[in-house]
């Protein structure tokens, strides 16, 4: 049924858009609360502030536009990531091959969340506005992308290892893969340098952590949501359920 | 249930799939990372417009 790349790609785009909208709603209702609190901290510093604008009189983009633009950005990222996700799914030759498309997609979404969201979040936790030295942004970006790449390599390595161990009984195979992943994650967390920026003293610790946890919730919504919706869209079982529903009604 | 593995070998990935995936990565980069490297001056507008989303998705920012 869903056997061409084009049909997978279109479903990836649709699933990414839906997961992106869900994540953008989490942003509007949850993440914006600590963002507002952080912007108030930044404004309180104002006299010395120059350069980066977050609203106010002479801002390049007003606060309202930033809220809408931020949500739009999340939806666009969802669609773009959905396309990449579908392509990786289409190329995968050993990812849980004995499972249904829905299970494969859900596991893939969870793995991608771990690699490109949870792992970088653990090493370089998300920071709200008013935290972060503009001087170090390129260095921080390089470190962040480095952890993302390392996370994806770990996922790829785990699937390779599981394939190599397929002659082993399942409990042995799963334990071995989990141990290898844990060891690789530990190496990444130790090997990458500590975050370069200190948290300014005027940033309340509850605002900081409310923001970080909101950010993680939003990332989970995006990536796990993508895995779930893509799985629903590609699994023939979804359609069979719908068809039998219709038959039952008729 | 669905027949496993059967659909796997059936998916033929054309060459343009890699271009499509690359496009997805470029769009993600433009929204989350554009700090002036690729677009120069117009990037600041883009940067400020997507500002909240970038923070919310945990990407390093200013």
- The low-confidence runs of chain A, each spanning 5 or more residues with pLDDT under 50, are none
Instruction: Count interface residues per chain for the largest interface.
Output: A-B, 72 and 41 residues
Radius of gyration of chain A: 21 Å
Number of strands of chain B: 0
Structural class of chain A: mainly alpha
Give the percentage of residues in beta strands of chain B: under 5%
Mean pLDDT of chain B: 78
> Could you estimate the helical fraction of the residues of chain B in percent?
55-70%
Number of helices of chain A: 7
Radius of gyration of chain B: 18 Å
Helix content of chain A: over 70%
Number of domains of chain A: 1
Order of helices and strands of chain A: HHHHHHH
Concise account of the structure shown:
The complex is a heterodimer of chains A (250) and B (62). Chain A has 250 residues and is mainly α. Chain A has helices at 5-44, 63-91, 101-123, 137-164, 170-191, 205-234, 236-249.
Q: If you had to describe this structure to a student in words, what would you say it looks like?
A:
The complex is a heterodimer of chains A (250) and B (62). With 250 residues, chain A is an all-alpha fold. Chain A contains 7 helices and no strands. Chain A has one domain (5-132, 202-249). In chain A, helix 3 (101-123) runs antiparallel to helix 4 and helix 4 packs antiparallel against helix 5. The longest helix of chain A has 40 residues, at 5-44. The relative contact order of chain A is 0.18. Chain B has 62 residues and is mainly alpha-helical. Chain B has a domain at 14-56. Chain B has 4 helices and no strands. At the A-B interface, helix 1, helix 2, helix 3, helix 4 and helix 6 of A face helix 1, helix 2, helix 3 and helix 4 of B.
């Amino acid at each position: 049924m869903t056997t061409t790349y084009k049909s997978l790609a279109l479903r990836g785009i649709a699933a990414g858009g839906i997961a992106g909208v869900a994540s953008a709603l989490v942003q509007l209702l949850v993440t914006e609360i600590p963002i507002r609190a952080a912007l108030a901290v930044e404004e309180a510093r104002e006299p010395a502030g120059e350069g980066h604008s977050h609203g106010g009189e002479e801002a390049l983009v007003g606060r309202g536009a930033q809220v809408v633009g931020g949500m739009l950005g999340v939806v666009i990222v969802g669609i773009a990531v959905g396309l990449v996700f579908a392509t990786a799914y289409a190329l995968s030759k050993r990812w849980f091959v004995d499972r249904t498309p829905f299970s494969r997609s859900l596991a893939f979404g969870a793995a991608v969340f771990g690699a490109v969201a949870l792992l970088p979040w653990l090493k370089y936790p998300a920071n709200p506005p008013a935290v972060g030295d503009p001087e170090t942004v390129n260095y921080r970006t390089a470190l962040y992308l480095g952890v993302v790449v390392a996370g994806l390599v770990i996922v790829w390595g785990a699937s390779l290892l599981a394939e190599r161990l397929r002659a082993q009984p399942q409990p042995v195979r799963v334990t071995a893969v989990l141990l290898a992943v844990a060891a690789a994650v530990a190496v990444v967390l130790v090997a990458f340098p500590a975050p370069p920026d200190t948290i300014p003293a005027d940033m309340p610790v509850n605002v900081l952590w409310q923001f970080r946890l909101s950010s993680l919730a939003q990332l989970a919504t995006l990536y796990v949501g993508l895995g779930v919706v893509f799985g629903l869209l590609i699994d023939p079982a979804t359609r069979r359920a719908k068809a039998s529903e219709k038959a039952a009604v008729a | 249930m669905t027949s496993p593995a059967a659909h796997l070998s059936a998916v033929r990935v054309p060459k343009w799939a890699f271009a499509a995936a690359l496009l997805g990565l470029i769009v993600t980069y433009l929204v989350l990372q554009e700090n002036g490297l690729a677009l120069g001056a117009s990037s600041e507008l883009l940067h400020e417009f997507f500002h909240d989303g970038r923070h919310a998705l945990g990407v390093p920012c200013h």
